[in-house]
Design brief:
Elements: E1 10-13, E2 20-23, H1 48-57, E3 63-67, E4 78-81, E5 87-90, E6 102-106, E7 111-115, E8 126-129, E9 135-138, E10 151-155, E11 160-164, E12 175-178, E13 184-187, E14 199-203, E15 208-212, E16 223-226, E17 232-235, E18 238-240, E19 243-244, E20 248-252, E21 257-261, E22 272-275, E23 281-284, E24 287-288, E25 291-292, E26 296-300, E27 305-309, E28 320-323, E29 329-332, E30 340-344, E31 349-353, E32 364-367, E33 373-376, E34 391-395
Antiparallel strand pairs: 1-2, 3-34, 4-5, 5-6, 6-7, 8-9, 9-10, 10-11, 12-13, 13-14, 14-15, 16-17, 17-20, 18-19, 20-21, 22-23, 23-26, 24-25, 26-27, 28-29, 29-30, 30-31, 32-33, 33-34
């Protein structure tokens, strides 16, 4: 079988021996995981009679519905919810080249409009909404397959991009985390031939980058999660083509240093990490030593330990995970899967929910202010030759 992985290393697994070897195939990408900073609530009925009907019937079913197509098909792009409720999609792979274009989704109209282009095309960068409402896009790689050190700022007021200071070095497969003081922590990644342990901080006040403490070891395609105590949990990833990491570390912004914390049960890359409402972190899926994983684990910041929780119904890698307002987690995509599922932290169980209309990998998922989830772009083709412009909305329903 071929694992659909969101990067330039794809592995072919021999079903009889379980041996996995590298194969030279086109690059594949993963959409960003969106961790909403707060909760929103939505009212399901516009009329009093409709609200009464909902109260009597108990609930409305979860569902997927199509919404307007993006202007350009793209995969491996970023998606950022802006303060005005629109969603900025930027960059990515367009099927034959990397994209510099960007566009805005308006939930009220269900349509996309073009906005200013970035200075150059980039695939797999990070995008971070800053406290002033601008968006920092950093790193990734270009159409010539060059890894990038450059960073740009998008201003929603003018719809334009401006260059900001370059990172100390090029990065792809890194993470970017907004800290409580407004700075952005960028950690790890790779330069193509090797992985990085270095980390640096972007300061919006002077638009500059400064080095901070190195991680204990190199890693790329890991996850990074801001914890309620202000520290950043980095987990998993890879340290070489075949070395998958179980280790996790904590970054302390006050000291600029990293400390080891408990190891995960399984080495993972291309997994997701979601901060739950109770402060724990749910890590799901990814690729392990035996192939694509369905297993999930929970990190408890109070004890610094991991515990297994019920696995997903399908093995997934390069998927997206979105925290819903009611505290459940919606998982979408991975390779050739149309199925989606929900994790309920109160019971520690997964349940399937409606299928998406098109198979997607390398898509982006964004929680909108009304509690629905926008899923856009990606590819339904394992070779990534067929990139999607379509988008759809998940409505969690009214609950019980």
């Amino acid at each position: 079988m071929v694992d659909i992985l969101p990067r330039h290393r794809t592995y072919i697994e021999d079903a009889s021996s379980g041996h996995r070897s590298q194969a030279a195939v086109p690059r594949e990408y993963a959409g960003p995981v969106i961790h909403p900073g707060g909760t929103t609530h939505r009212f399901a009925g516009a009329l009093a009679s409709a609200a009464l009907l909902l109260a009597v019937s108990g609930c409305t079913a979860a569902s997927w519905t199509a919404t307007g197509n993006m202007i350009e098909a793209r995969a491996g792009h970023t998606a950022t919810l802006l303060p005005d409720g629109t969603v900025l999609a930027a960059g990515g792979y367009g099927g034959s080249s990397t994209l510099a274009s960007a566009e805005l989704y308006d939930p009220g109209r269900g349509s996309w409009t073009a906005t200013g282009n970035m200075d150059g095309g980039r695939v797999g960068p990070t995008a971070t909404l800053l406290p002033d409402g601008t968006v920092l896009v950093a790193g990734g790689y270009s159409s010539s397959d060059d890894h990038l050190a450059s960073a740009e700022l998008y201003d929603p007021g003018s719809g334009s991009w401006t260059a900001t200071g370059n990172m100390d070095g090029v990065r792809d497969g890194h993470t970017a985390t907004l800290l409580p003081d407004g700075r952005v922590l960028v950690a790890g990644g790779d330069i193509g031939s090797s992985m990085l342990a270095s980390a640096e901080l972007y300061d919006p006040s002077n638009r500059s980058w400064t080095a901070t403490g190195n991680m204990d070891g190199v890693r790329d395609y890991h996850t990074a999660t801001l914890l309620p105590n202000g520290r950043v949990l980095v987990a998993g990833g890879s340290s070489s083509a075949f070395a998958l990491l179980t280790s996790a570390e904590l970054y302390d912004p006050s000291s600029g240093s990293w400390t080891a914390t408990g190891n995960m049960d399984a080495g993972r890359v291309y997994h997701t990490a979601t901060l739950l409402l109770d402060g724990r972190v749910l890590v799901a899926g990814g690729v392990g030593s035996e192939g694509t994983l369905a297993s999930t684990e929970l990190y408890d910041p109070s004890s610094g330990s991991w515990t297994a929780t019920e696995g997903m119904s399908e093995a997934r890698s390069g998927h997206t995970a979105t925290l819903l307002p009611d505290g459940r987690v919606l998982v979408v995509g991975s390779g050739e899967l149309a199925s989606t599922e929900l994790y309920d932290p109160s019971s520690g169980t997964w349940t399937t929910t409606g299928d998406i209309s098109e198979v997607r990998a390398g898509h982006a998922a964004t929680l909108l202010p009304d509690g629905t989830v926008l899923v856009a772009g990606g590819s339904g083709d394992p070779s990534f030759t067929g990139v999607l412009a379509s988008a759809e909305l998940y409505d969690p329903g009214s609950g019980t």
